[in-house]
Amino acid sequence: MTDLKLKVTMDLSVVLVVGFCFVLLGNGVQSDRDDKKLQSLPQDQPYRTGYHFQPPKNWMNDPNGPMYYKGVYHLFYQYNPYAAVWGTITWAHSISYDLVNWIHLDIALSPDDPFDINGCWSGSTTFLSGGKPVILYTGGVTMNRQVQNLAEPKNLSDPMLREWVKSSHNPIITHVDGMDSENFRDPTTAWQGPDGLWRVLVGNEMNSHGRALLYRSRDFVTWTQSKEPIHSSTRTGMWECPDFYPVSLDGKNGVDTSSLDKFTKHVLKASFNSSDHYVLGNYTTVTDNFSVDTDFLENGSDLRYDYGNFYASKTFFDSAKKRRILWAWIQESDSTTDDIKKDWSGLQSFPRSILLSKTGKQLIQWPVEEIEKQRTVNVSFKNKELKGGSVLQISGITASQADVEVSFNSSNLKEADLLDPSWVDPQLLCSQKTASVGGNIGPFGILALASKDLTEQTSIFFRVFRSNDKYVVLMCSDQSRSSLEEGLKKTIYGAFIDIDPLNEMISLRSLIDHSIVESFGGEGRACITARVYPKLAIDNQAYLYAFNNGTFDVNISTLNAWSMKKAQIVSFTKRRKPHLN
């Protein structure tokens, strides 16, 4: 099917027509839009997103095995096909040609074998020699025993990779005596060393301490555990969904996971304490030694992908555009009862490119460039003064589904409040100094998903402090007034950003999409994601404002805001009988 080798830039309508024709070649294929069971969502759905990925209904959590294969982006994810709560976990499968518009395909892996009967849990994809993709995933054998399994595509000539076959060798990695088999999961993308051996990491906990176990294999079937984990920490618990990959020192392009380039650092990410933390370090391929620059939570260090609602992330190398792309599970912040009522739970973050900063001390994230194709109506202006205590409405766009970029500066920095040396926890500081608490320089920023009277608002803002001979910039995402609804998690998030406001603008980009706000401060040096459920500020009753609640004026150097088109998402699946464990 050479006509399916589509270019990413091809018009979406052509992509969907060709994709539809391709899927119809399989016997008994139907569109989920014609399946009444899959279209039984409640009518009132103000919190479903317009351009973030989510399945038609039911429960979704971790992103699994994202990859680019023969012109097609693939995303697998943890999915319960029967309810909006966790259970009967499968690997669902969707494809895209542009990371924005998606086609849902049949479930790739279901828990129907002894080695995964309690769930096909998280894992990764790896390209073997010759470009053959394979899946490594965790199988739940019993509720307190986990093993690692292998699956392969049934037909490599199918760019959609619609069918997967579990290996007859499963399970290929099992725990050894003395290991906690209940916390032994989430294999990483494997990489190949100069000796030809494959390496993979598996998350584990031993004596309440997190660690990443290292395994090696010649044939990808028989694996041997290294005597020592590649890294461990006494400051953390279980490491879920570990990730390990190189980043280029020049900060320009992504790097393949198996790259032997010497001009790289390595990232080790671990999910714990409801957040995705990472460390940077130097990895020696010959000895498999990983020497970190600063360890997890050491000496006040707290490097995270995102300081908000963002967990169980997974990256992949996009060989087409030489970039590394990051996905993450964005959990609901309402109740299980609410999820059951609306008949779905969970979002994926909008895919982000990820690079090493110029300083080499942290990572930089930014929405992939394909998002710009969704932009429609634009509102922009420059050099607008925001007086202390003022609010400015940004009108002319669809505020419930928008992309906003704004940069601020101040000529009054010398008036900034002094930073108390005890203020070391940015989240606590943001919780104490919410958007309604005035300071000298700040709070200033935007009010997203706000009601006309501002009784509902999600505020993303900055404060500037003086500390010795430098300035400290605090970024906050305040959900405390996001909804009049009771019983919601309205957590306030915060992060310090490595910005010198004397020599650069304080910039903010926010992706606003009905019930999610992803914010990128300092050109991606700090990211905060929030889930909100306004009662008043929904659809065309949502408004966007810039504000300054500080004593001194700040200046909006530039502001650009766009209405965003809705992503096109269709479902094509085979007719099959329900499978229940």
Automatic annotation (TrEMBL):
GO terms for MF? hydrolase activity, hydrolyzing O-glycosyl compounds
Q: Which residues form the Glycosyl hydrolase family 32 C-terminal domain?
A: 371-563
| Record keywords | Glycosidase, Hydrolase
Q: Show the CDD domains listed in the entry.
A: GH32_Fruct1-like
Cross-referenced InterPro entries, in alphabetical order?
ConA-like_dom_sf (IPR013320), Fructan_Metab_Enzymes (IPR050551), Glyco_hydro_32 (IPR001362), Glyco_hydro_32_AS (IPR018053), Glyco_hydro_32_C (IPR013189), Glyco_hydro_32_N (IPR013148), Glyco_hydro_beta-prop_sf (IPR023296)
- Glycosyl hydrolase family 32 N-terminal domain mapped to chain residues: 52-367
Q: Which domain of life is it from?
A: Eukaryota
Q: Name one GO biological process term.
A: carbohydrate metabolic process
A Pfam match = Glyco_hydro_32N
Question: Can the keyword Hydrolase be found in this entry's annotation?
Answer: yes
Which family is annotated?
A: Belongs to the glycosyl hydrolase 32 family.
UniProt name for this protein: Glycosyl hydrolase family 32 N-terminal domain-containing protein
Q: Which organism is it from?
A: Gossypium darwinii
Q: What is the lineage of its organism?
A: Eukaryota, Viridiplantae, Streptophyta, Embryophyta, Tracheophyta
